[in-house]
Amino acid sequence: MATVATTSHRSVRSRAAGRRRFFGRFTLHGIAIGLSIILMVPFFWSLLSSFKPVYEIRLLPPELLPTEWRPQNYLDVFNVRRFPFWVRNTVYVTILATIGTAFTSMLGGYAFARFRFPGRGILFGITLSTLMLPDVVTLIPRYLLYYVLGMLNTHWPLILPFWFGGSAFFIFLFRQFFMTIPLDLDDAAKIDGASYLDILLRVIMPLSMPAVMTVAIIAFIAHWDSFIFPLIILNTPELFTLAIGIRFFSISPSQDAAPQDHILMAMSVIMTVPIIILFFLGQRYLVRGVVMSGIKG
C-alpha cells in the first residue's frame, strides 16, 4: 500500500511539474509573440503605406488599409533616374566592406586565439574597450581625416577602414570560436610544413564556417543599412547609397515639389526585402555561430 501511495504521489507531483512547465513556456512564448508583433508594426505600416496614394499616407487619424491600392508606386521607384546608381553603389560598398570586415576580424581573432606574445591580454582588453565608444564620437575626427586624405564624396571611407581594422565585436567572436578548435590540428599542420596563414585558411577556416557566416551576415546588414556616416561623406546624388537615397524623398528638393512619401515607403520595402531574405537563409548559421562561440544574451 505504501508503495502504491508513493507512486501515486510522485505521479501527481510529476503532472503538477509538467503543468507548471507548460504554463511557463506558454507565458514566455506569449510574451515573445507579443513583442514580435509590436516590433513588426513599423514594417507592416511601411508595407501597407507603400500601396497607398500619397495623400492617404498623411491622413490624421491614419488609415491602416489603403482605400485605393496602388502597386504603381513600386514601378515609380524603378522609374527614378538615380535609383540604379543607388542600388549599384549599395551593393558595391556592402560587398567590399563585408569581405574586409570578415577577413580582418578573422585575422585578429586568430592572432588573439593562437599566438602568445607580450601584452596580448592588455591589447585584447583595449580592443574590447572600443565597443564602449559610440560611433558618433568619432564622426568628426573621421570626417577631418578623410578631408585631409582627399577622400570626401567618394566610397573609399565606407570601404577602406574595414580592410584595416575589422570590428572589435567580430574579433571577439572569432577568438571565442577559434578557442573551441583543438590546438592539435595546428600542430599536425605545422608538421606537414603549413605556415600560420595556411593553418588559418586551410584548417581553421573550414571548421569555422558558422562563425564566418555569422560575421558576414551581421556585417552585411550593418553596411547595407548604414546611414549616418555615408550621409556626411557623400554629397553627389549619383554616389548615394539606398539609405541616403530614401532620405532624398523625405525632403523636397524645392518648395514647389510634390510630396513623394509613397515612393519613399515603396523604396523602404524594396531595401528591406534583401535583408529579410538573407536573415532567413542564414538563420541556421547565426544560431550555430553564436552558440558555438560561447556568446550569451
Give the termini distance in whole angstroms.
Answer: 50 Å
Query: What's the gyration radius in Å?
Result: 26 Å
Query: Which shape, going by the Cα principal axes?
Result: flat
Total helix count? 13
**Which secondary-structure class do the elements indicate?**
mainly alpha
CATH topology description of the largest domain:
MetI-like fold
Please bin the fraction of helical residues.
Answer: over 70%
| Count of the separate structural domains | 2
Beta strand %? under 5%
The average pLDDT is 84
Count of beta strands: 0
The second-level CATH architecture of the largest domain is Orthogonal Bundle
Order of helices and strands: HHHHHHHHHHHHH
Kindly provide the name of the CATH class of the largest domain.
Answer: Mainly Alpha
Unreliable runs: none
CATH-level-4 superfamily name of the largest domain:
MetI-like
Largest beta-sheet characterization = none
